[in-house]
Amino acid sequence: EVQLVESGGGLVQAGGSLRLSCAASGFTFDVYTLGWFRQAPGKEREGVSCFSSSDGNTYYADSVKGRFTISSDNAKKNTVYLQMNSLKPEDTAVYYCAAVDGGSYYPLCDLYGMDYWGKGTLVTVSS
Questions:
Q1: CA 98 to chain centre
Q2: Taking the CA atoms of the chain, what radius of gyration do you get in angstroms?
Q3: Is the pLDDT of residue 1 over 70?
Q4: Which pLDDT belongs to residue 77?
Q5: C-alpha angle 125/94/20, rounded to 5°?
Q6: Where in the chain does DSSP place strands (E)?
Q7: Average pLDDT of 33-44?
């Protein structure tokens, strides 16, 4: 079974940066999807950014384009990072790492297409 361990959350002032890390293990297939979702208080969980190993495609939510960057570490297989710059108070949320083991019929970064979830890490952006 796939296991996901997130790290890197914390408190930062608006305009600052944070980098989230997700270490994944237990993949059965060579093809997989790794990504980040977030859930703010009182709001639904939403896709932030995802990466597909099969074709290298990436997805970014409109609200984070130009500010967030997803990347993977070839040296540390199955580790994905989310570099978050120019953070805004509205980015405050619990951020979850999620994964799909193998292919998927869902669009990249579709909430209902993800099979495995981390426990989440809190990001708080103060104004």
A1: 7
A2: 14
A3: yes
A4: 62
A5: 75
A6: 3-7, 10-13, 18-25, 32-39, 46-52, 58-60, 68-72, 79-84, 93-101, 116-117, 121-126
A7: 95
**Given pLDDT bands bounded at 50, 70 and 90, which one contains residue 4?**
very high
Phi, psi values for residue 113, rounded to 5°: -90, -5
| CA–CA dist 61, 63 (Å, integer) | 5
Residue 66, C-beta contacts closer than 8 angstroms, at least 6 positions apart: none
In sequence order, the β-bridge partners of residue 47 are 37
Question: What is the maximum span of the chain, computed from C-alpha positions, in angstroms?
Answer: 43
Q: What is the pLDDT of residues 63-86, one digit of tens each?
A: 999 999 999 876 666 789 999 999
The per-residue pLDDT for 105 is 85
Task: Check: CB of residue 102 under 8 Å from CB of residue 116.
Answer: no
Question: Which tokens belong to 70?
Answer: 């997803």
